[in-house]
Design brief:
7 strands; 286 residues; alpha/beta; Rossmann fold
Length: 286
């Protein structure tokens, strides 16, 4: 797929504030789980005086969460609108393509690919991994969070009927372009010179429950709002923005924490056993 497609699509989304700045650890519970897993893997890096690249990082939500753990932190994104929105001056902004980055003067100990992999056409994944590998220092790691074609409640029926379209309802409108199986990911990484060092399956049962609570709450909340969000596929977006402004309130913070811990049960109980709708991957070059 041409670079111009990715650029146009992402610029439009950031112009609409479809993906916005979110420095919270919670963001409807799943972000807490992402932070917990990524933080553990980052703490295990050998080089503590190191550099981080948030590849396809948009407005730097994850670069922000981990910037105090690295000497140098950069966000690479194809959207100039997103990069211009990053308020932190100590975050390096790199306007480039994650599939074919032209940068030569940087190399990194850790590369994040968070909610990026599924937005890349399957025909471009091999090229992306090969080029990101060139930016990785010796003993460096790439940390990935993405969707997968596993056995989450939303995918079981697709497997039963043999539906060739693996994407769930609304995901195409959110720019998702692939949903690989765990085996397909392992084959891709092997082909591009990587080894999976660690992984956790996710979004199997408990994250499905918290997502249902989130979506139900968002739908109820919208009844009492005078303005609807731009895209009703993301019903919780405007509600989430409102709650985040009051996150330090005890009566908001407590349920956010409880539901975040419930989401984490997927990792504790099924993380190494059953492929769900999402996956965490820590990979390195062979």
């Amino acid at each position: 797929m041409k670079c111009s497609f990715y650029k146009k699509y992402n610029e439009e989304k950031y112009t609409q504030n479809y993906w916005g700045i979110d420095r919270s650890k919670y963001k409807w519970f799943s972000k807490y789980v992402k932070f917990k897993i990524l933080d553990r893997w980052i703490d295990s890096l050998k080089n503590k005086d190191s550099s981080l690249l948030d590849a396809g990082g948009g407005v730097g939500n994850y670069a922000f969460l981990f910037k105090n753990k690295f000497k140098h932190v950069a966000v690479l994104d194809i959207s100039k609108k997103a990069l211009d929105s990053i308020p932190e001056e100590d975050i390096i902004k790199i306007h480039d393509s994650v599939i074919n980055p032209k940068i030569k003067k940087y190399s990194f100990d850790c590369i994040l690919l968070i909610d990026v992999f599924e937005h890349i056409d399957s025909k471009d994944l091999e090229k992306m991994m090969q080029n990101l590998g060139k930016l990785l220092k010796k003993d460096g790691k790439i940390l990935i969070f993405t969707s997968q074609f596993g056995y989450g409640t939303g995918l079981i029926w697709k497997r039963i009927i043999g539906d060739k379209n693996r994407l769930k309802k609304g995901e195409e409108r959110e720019g998702h372009l692939n949903r690989l199986t765990f085996e397909e990911m392992k084959f891709l990484f092997k082909k591009t010179g990587f080894v999976i060092e660690d992984f956790y399956h996710y979004s199997i049962i408990f994250q499905q429950i918290t997502d249902f609570i989130k979506d139900s709450f968002a739908k109820i909340s919208l009844i009492f709002r005078t303005q609807n969000p731009i895209d009703k596929i993301r019903l919780g977006q405007s509600v989430k923005e409102h709650i985040r402004q009051k996150e330090e309130n005890f009566f908001i913070k407590l349920p956010l924490k409880i539901l975040s811990y419930i989401s984490y049960f997927d990792i504790i109980l099924f993380g190494k056993l059953l492929p769900g709708e999402s996956i965490f991957l820590k990979i390195r070059k062979r």
